[in-house]
């Protein structure tokens, strides 16, 4: 499962817009100079109530929930629970496997980006 950098960037942009409620980011008009360039003052750009850390935590929690659900269904099926079918077990297992693979790929991209940033000359 190979994630291209442009595809990852566009997915991150769409997630950012989704987190902000599809509103463009707020621009601090006072931080823009006379010639249209931003001055040295650093203003808060993202006024949304959620931040990246919260979004990441929610994503990891949802992956964890899928893993728990898959394990519970497997256990129930193995114990002979007639309310859980083999199809449900296989679907839950596939969902949790895909979510875990995507999480690992995202982690790998973050580590790669971190290493690239750390190797940049200052």
From TrEMBL:
A matching Pfam family: FliE
Gene Ontology cellular component annotations, sorted alphabetically: bacterial-type flagellum basal body
Predominant cellular place of this UniProt entry's protein: other
TM spans (from-to): none
Superkingdom classification of source: Bacteria
GO molecular function, one term: cytoskeletal motor activity
Keyword Endoplasmic reticulum: no
Keyword line: Bacterial flagellum, Cell projection, Cilium, Flagellum
Subcellular location field: Bacterial flagellum basal body
GO BP of this protein: bacterial-type flagellum-dependent cell motility
Alphabetized PANTHER family for the sequence: FLAGELLAR HOOK-BASAL BODY COMPLEX PROTEIN FLIE, PTHR34653
HAMAP family assigned to the protein according to its UniProt record, in alphabetical order: FliE (MF_00724)
Membership in a protein family: Belongs to the FliE family.
Name of the protein in its database record: Flagellar hook-basal body complex protein FliE
Species annotation: Colwellia ponticola
